[in-house]
Amino acid sequence: MGDGDRTQAVYGEAWVYESIVGAIPGVEVSDRTAVLVQFAGFEAVLLALAFAYDLPGTVVPGTAAVAVAAAGSAFMLSIGRQARNAGVPVRYRRLLFASSIEVVLGVVAYVALLTYLFVYDPRDGATLFAALLGERPPVLPAAFALLVLWDVCYRIGTGWWAAVVALWRSLSYEFDADTAAVVRAVDRRTLAFGALQSVLLPFVWTHPPLAVAVAGHVAAVVLVATGSLLAIKQDG
């Protein structure tokens, strides 16, 4: 990712994540720097809160979630850069970026997660949230945990949308050799983007509904992205 990558993202052809970062006055950094700052900043806050509130059990799962979110940002930036290639169909780009449906899907995932954590999970006694933060979670660690969870859910929504739109694109268009190589690169990144979130499985394994949801999400994105790869049609 070179220093000029971010200048290629324009309003209407960028993820909401990219548009927000690009809209910060005076901020002009490379993709790599943006991802490293995201990871380092979140990890520093995580470690500081774990130390200040004596919550050592939050470090490993928290670091996993922060790493998934940061790596997800890297995949999003890479997918976005490839999808903005001049040969890629304009309608595909508009569906992928301008609709902002990845945000809607992220909100759906986040609402479902909060409903599980604070409505369904307490019915069985010990909850996942309490196991990490205690029966009376301190305010700042709880707020930070919810922020990180939103970050992860937004990436989950993005993975869903990227895979679905990729499959539609592959079934709807034929490509020349160069563009076919570009969309294959997009689909491989989308597939890896979905598979990445399997890192979260060990931390929710004792909560079957969450484990099934994460595993199902990963399997669905990998399956649809693979289907898109196989369906790419090259003219000539």
TrEMBL record:
Q: Which domain of life is it from?
A: Archaea
Instruction: Reply yes or no: does the keyword Transmembrane apply.
Output: yes
Q: Pfam families given for it?
A: DUF7530
Residues spanning the membrane? 34-53, 59-79, 95-119, 139-168, 189-205, 211-232
Give yes or no: UniProt keyword Ribonucleoprotein. no
InterPro entries the UniProt entry points to: DUF7530
Q: Which UniProt keywords apply?
A: Membrane, Transmembrane, Transmembrane helix
Q: What is this protein called?
A: Uncharacterized protein
The source organism is: Halobacterium hubeiense
